[in-house]
Automatic annotation (TrEMBL):
<dbReference type="GO" id="GO:0005524">
    <property type="term" value="F:ATP binding"/>
</dbReference>
<feature type="binding site">
    <location>
        <position position="82"/>
    </location>
    <ligand>
        <name>ATP</name>
    </ligand>
</feature>
<feature type="binding site">
    <location>
        <begin position="97"/>
        <end position="98"/>
    </location>
    <ligand>
        <name>ATP</name>
    </ligand>
</feature>
<dbReference type="GO" id="GO:0140662">
    <property type="term" value="F:ATP-dependent protein folding chaperone"/>
</dbReference>
<keyword id="KW-0346">Stress response</keyword>
<dbReference type="InterPro" id="IPR036890">
    <property type="entry name" value="HATPase_C_sf"/>
</dbReference>
<dbReference type="GO" id="GO:0051082">
    <property type="term" value="F:unfolded protein binding"/>
</dbReference>
<dbReference type="Pfam" id="PF00183">
    <property type="entry name" value="HSP90"/>
</dbReference>
<dbReference type="InterPro" id="IPR037196">
    <property type="entry name" value="HSP90_C"/>
</dbReference>
<keyword id="KW-0963">Cytoplasm</keyword>
<protein>
    <recommendedName>
        <fullName>Chaperone protein HtpG</fullName>
    </recommendedName>
</protein>
<feature type="domain" description="Histidine kinase/HSP90-like ATPase">
    <location>
        <begin position="25"/>
        <end position="179"/>
    </location>
</feature>
<feature type="binding site">
    <location>
        <position position="32"/>
    </location>
    <ligand>
        <name>ATP</name>
    </ligand>
</feature>
<dbReference type="GO" id="GO:0016887">
    <property type="term" value="F:ATP hydrolysis activity"/>
</dbReference>
<keyword id="KW-0067">ATP-binding</keyword>
<keyword id="KW-0143">Chaperone</keyword>
<feature type="binding site">
    <location>
        <position position="340"/>
    </location>
    <ligand>
        <name>ATP</name>
    </ligand>
</feature>
Length: 561
């Protein structure tokens, strides 16, 4: 078997165009080729489990290797492999037709990821870094022959007999002069870790040195010797792929450290996302400890698709206010090659967004209900998310209304409803609005705060930067309520509506007063009324019916007294 052919597209040399266009993001060639190796391995595992592949599965580890002298990078898998026919079909036809279309349309494309996604150029991203790409492959099918395919980045390819003796595929990249940086251990390790840290099939990149116990020395102290072990890049079963019921708190914390090895803090709590309808999505979102509002890092959430890292730019998938969270989101419904314009257009993305918001709100509500004290302790750290969320998302605000807390200057904590109840009667203005007093600077407003408290009023703490916005929000969302920064003038204008409404005398006391008056005056048609509320200037009124009747008569005849 030895066949040469030409691909029938008009542009003579498309790869320089692709190369140039994709240049900014050229490290993704490794993501694409390793994902293909993972796919091929998952396929053979699936065929084996279905009983359609009867051979030994054997070691399925994927190897990534490089040779500085030969200037090659090789990705080898023990997956399903390809027959010569399949190479022609999957590598030549599909990709070349994609590439041809690309040449026509590349001017519209906005970023490199979009091109790869739209035109199925995953495999061809290899030409961003290689001037020659070679495939050595042997299909799992019985009687298949080893096949070699070579392409030098022009539109011509060559297929001949290959040298693989075991099932699977090697992709050999002959690295071009501009891409020498990739022929370095550290660089490749970094890229593999970035994209492949949680791939479902083990990825080996050479060996690494570690130490292991080696008995005791003469003084009885343990000795260690250094040994070479496989340098495995990935954890094939990251926490988010497991069932929440199989995970303990330690597992979630350990996974957090795996995600952010350099983070010193532990997360406050987490939410394990697990959706399969109407879209697939798994993930774990962590609430970080917040030291102050300016210190939190955004963009810490990592987006995965089938355990392949895509991006940590999750702006369009995660609602803005939740960008402050950390963790992982994995959805096969988000294609490997996402681009900004794709995300904005995709309806799944909107649903994902809404779902995450709902999940986070539900989790917070559950925490609040289940352990209010614990929730109050965490409030300092989560209040920013909650307030930010309420300001920016009505649906979230609806739910958060029940667990959003406010704190007064005595460090007492209330829900919004509780607080409204607390001050509704004691702090009103002359128009009957409830007035919430707040301070945004406890030191500066100290004397006003004391005055307010001396008069029995309550002052809220609203001293974080987001509170500047939250004050306005609360005022707008709370009926007949105004928020006023505490000062002498504001305090003076307050009316204690409740003072006047509260009963000054109990019912029994009122009755005693009435009978005392009745006994003392003792007249017929007399009516004694006690002002139990203390609303009138006269605490007791005595009216005599006859007198009232005469008054009325006079009023009707127009006479005076
Ligand atoms: P995609 O992965 O999106 O299908 P690619 O351009 O990355 O597109 O790959 C094209 C096709 O080539 C794959 O669908 C697969 O059929 C075949 N292929 C690529 N790499 C391998 C491999 N390592 N083993 C088996 N088949 C492969
Ligand atoms: Mg691919």
């Amino acid at each position: 078997m030895n066949e040469k052919g030409n691909i029938s597209i008009h542009t003579e040399n498309i790869f320089p165009v692709i190369k140039k266009f994709l240049y900014s993001d050229n490290e993704i060639f490794l993501r694409e080729l390793v994902s293909n190796a993972v796919d091929a391995t998952q396929k053979i595992k699936r065929l084996a489990s279905l009983g359609q592949y009867k051979g030994e599965l054997g070691d399925i580890t994927i190897d990534v290797a490089f040779d500085e002298e030969a200037r090659t990078i090789t990705i080898s898998d023990n997956g399903i492999g390809m027959t010569a026919e399949e190479v022609k079909k999957y590598i030549n036809q599909i990709a070349f037709s994609g590439a041809a279309e690309f040449v026509e349309k590349f001017k519209e494309a906005k970023d490199a990821n979009e091109i790869i996604g739209r035109f199925g150029l995953g495999f061809y991203s290899a030409f961003m870094v290689a001037d020659q790409v070679e495939i050595q492959t042997l299909s799992y099918q019985e009687g298949a022959e080893a096949t070699r395919w070579v392409c030098d980045g022009s539109t011509s390819y060559e297929i001949s007999e290959g040298n693989r003796t075991t099932r699977g595929t090697d992709i050999i990249l002959h690295i071009n002069n501009d891409s020498e940086e990739f022929l370095a251990k550290g660089k490749l390790q970094d890229i593999l870790e970035k994209y492949g840290k949680f791939l479902p099939v083990p990825i080996r990149f050479g060996t690494r040195t570690t130490s292991e116990p080696d008995g005791d020395d003469d003084e009885g102290k343990p000795k260690y010797k250094s040994i070479e072990v496989d340098n495995i890049i990935n954890n094939t079963t990251p926490a988010w792929t497991k069932s929440p019921s199989d995970l303990k708190d330690e597992d979630y914390l350990a996974f957090y450290r795996e995600l952010y090895p350099y983070s010193m803090d532990e997360p406050l709590f987490w939410i394990h996302l697990n959706v399969d309808y109407p879209f697939n999505l798994t993930g774990i979102l962590y609430f970080p400890k917040v030291k102050n509002d300016f210190e939190i890092q955004k963009n810490k959430i990592k987006l995965y698709s089938r355990q392949v890292f895509i991006t940590d730019e999750v702006k369009d998938i995660v609602p803005e206010f939740l960008m402050l969270l950390h963790g992982v989101i994995d959805s096969p419904d988000i294609p490997l090659n996402v681009s900004r314009s794709f995300l904005q257009a995709d309806s799944n993305v909107k649903k994902i967004n809404a779902h995450i918001t709902k999940k986070v709100a539900d989790k917070l509500a559950e925490l609040f209900k289940g352990d209010r004290k614990g929730f109050e302790e965490k409030w300092k750290d989560i209040s920013l998310f909650v307030k930010y969320g309420m300001l920016s998302d009505d649906k979230f605000a609806e739910k958060a209304n029940d667990f959003c807390l406010v704190r007064n200057t005595d460090q007492e904590v209330y829900t919004l409803k509780e607080y409204a109840e607390k001050v509704k009667d004691i702090q009103q203005d002359k128009d009957g609005n409830v007035v919430y007093l707040y301070t945004n600077d406890i030191a500066q407003q100290d004397s006003y705060i004391s005055t307010a408290k001396d008069r029995g009023y309550d002052v809220l703490m609203m001293d974080s930067p987001i509170d500047a916005h939250f004050v306005g929000y609360l005022e707008q969302k709370t009926e007949k309520t105004q928020l006023k920064r505490v000062d002498a003038d504001v305090i003076d204008k307050l009316i204690k509506a409740a003072d006047s409404k509260e009963l000054q005398l109990t019912e029994d006391e009122s009755k005693t007063v009435v009978s005392l008056f009745e006994k003392a005056i003792s007249r017929d048609n007399m009516k004694v009324e006690v002002d139990a509320l203390g609303e009138n200037e006269l605490p007791v009124t005595v009216t005599i019916d006859e007198f009232m009747r005469r008054m009325k008569d006079m009023a009707q005849t127009g006479g005076g007294m």
